[in-house]
């Protein structure tokens, strides 16, 4: 799904700021529920599990306080409905249009922006919209929390666009947002259990989750070519194993590195952190407290680099895929998803990544690039890039260019 909002993005440089110097913001602090200039999201009991794109959304002031439209004629301030923030997305004030005055509004869509409403500052946009929604009736379909956030972003002309709406706001926070920590998932599972949702219900929903057909064929193709496929994920064992077993892919992977899951004495599914941050924090500032993927890659490197012929291809799109990308060598490969958090971090810190970069934007790109790299490593440059048509979205693929048919060790299953 393309997240760029349709409309007038081409008419304004989204990186251009108008009129004001922007003062520094405090750091995001989930423990204090402070998320300066962020979109925030919380799941709705039961509903968000059946339809993950549905949830309660708010937008935060520069001081980190949360504004959310929670009912008719009422905008909550610092009292986020439906519980603590589970996901957040930090927005960039540099992508807003803040004219120095109405008479000197010089952007190319100034007239349309003035018609929709102009703000002098970030907080001005949020407060003006709040006063407007204090006179609106709440409607689940036409005037809801997403509508409030969309109106704020239109007043900010965020990204040079005036066409923010319920759909693209929901897509933005779900597809580009970050979990506050892994315990957010555990909290959601606890809530589902209290609503009578069983582990079997969760498994049935996971089995209905779509996987792109090219991903399945690519995994099987890579495995047949001798690739040692390993997963490094901030999900959890129950989710990953349920999906892989359903699609007949579990035996293609030699290792699954993710947060463990257990069933407690009352039959509730629990998710635990991969790294116990209460007992032994991993100490990496780039990764969330529950898992440092870079440490996982270091361990895998130590186990496979005794054979110097092996190389890695690492695929990822999230913020926590940047750390492991910095751990690879010049002869390895990183495939970051373009215009996603890992791509942005690599572009901002290019000297930290030694591996050869091959970005991708869509499933066709990923298909072509991944299989070309695999065949180049195994057979050399004489193999054309179009020899195999398939796709893969899993993260870590160490490859031997001498043993294309090496056996892959069965996955060590963890009882859930």
TrEMBL record:
Its cofactor is Mg(2+). Keywords: Hydrolase, Magnesium, Metal-binding. InterPro entries: HAD-like_sf, HAD_hydro_PyrdxlP_Pase-like, HAD_sf, Pase_PHOSPHO-typ. SUPFAM superfamilies: HAD-like. It holds the Pfam family Put_Phosphatase. GO terms for molecular function: metal ion binding; phosphatase activity. Coiled coil: none annotated. PANTHER family: LP01149P, PHOSPHATASE, ORPHAN 1, 2. This is Thiamine phosphate phosphatase-like protein.
């Amino acid at each position: 799904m393309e997240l760029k909002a349709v409309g007038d993005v081409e008419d304004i440089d989204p990186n251009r700021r108008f009129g004001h110097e922007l003062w520094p913001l405090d750091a995001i602090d989930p423990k204090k529920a402070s998320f300066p200039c962020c979109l925030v999201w919380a799941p709705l009991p039961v509903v968000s599990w059946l339809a993950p794109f549905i949830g309660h959304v708010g937008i935060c002031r520069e001081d980190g306080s949360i504004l959310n439209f929670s009912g008719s004629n009422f905008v909550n301030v610092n009292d986020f409905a439906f519980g603590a923030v589970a996901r957040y997305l930090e927005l960039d004030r540099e992508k807003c249009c803040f004219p120095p005055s109405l008479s000197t509004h010089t952007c190319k869509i100034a007239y349309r922006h003035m018609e929709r409403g102009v703000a002098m500052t970030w907080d001005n946009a949020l407060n003006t919209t709040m006063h407007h929604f204090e006179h609106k009736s709440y409607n689940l379909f036409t005037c809801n929390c997403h509508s409030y956030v969309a109106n704020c972003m239109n007043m900010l002309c965020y990204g040079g666009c005036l066409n923010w709406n319920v759909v693209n706001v929901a897509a933005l926070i779900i597809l580009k947002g970050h979990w506050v920590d892994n315990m957010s998932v555990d909290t959601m599972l606890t809530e589902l259990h209290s609503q009578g949702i069983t582990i079997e219900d969760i498994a049935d929903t996971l089995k209905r989750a779509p996987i792109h057909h090219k991903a399945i064929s690519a995994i099987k193709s890579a495995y047949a070519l001798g690739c040692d496929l390993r997963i490094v994920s901030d999900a959890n064992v129950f989710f990953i194993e349920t999906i892989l077993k359903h699609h007949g892919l579990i035996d293609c992977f030699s290792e699954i590195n993710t947060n463990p899951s257990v069933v407690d004495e009352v039959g509730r599914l629990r998710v635990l952190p991969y790294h116990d941050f209460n007992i032994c924090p991993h100490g990496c500032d780039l990764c969330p407290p529950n898992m440092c993927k870079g440490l996982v890659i270091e361990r895998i490197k130590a186990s496979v680099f005794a054979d110097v012929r092996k190389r890695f291809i690492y695929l990822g799109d999230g913020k926590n895929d940047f750390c492991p990308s910095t751990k690879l060598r010049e002869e390895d490969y990183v495939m970051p998803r373009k215009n996603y958090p890992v791509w942005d971090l690599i572009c901002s810190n290019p000297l930290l990544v030694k591996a050869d970069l091959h970005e991708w934007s869509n499933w066709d790109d990923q298909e072509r690039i991944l299989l070309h790299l695999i065949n180049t490593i195994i057979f050399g440059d004489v193999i054309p890039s179009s020899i195999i048509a398939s796709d893969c979205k899993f993260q870590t693929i160490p490859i031997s260019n001498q043993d294309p048919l090496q056996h892959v060790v069965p996955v060590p299953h963890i009882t859930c």
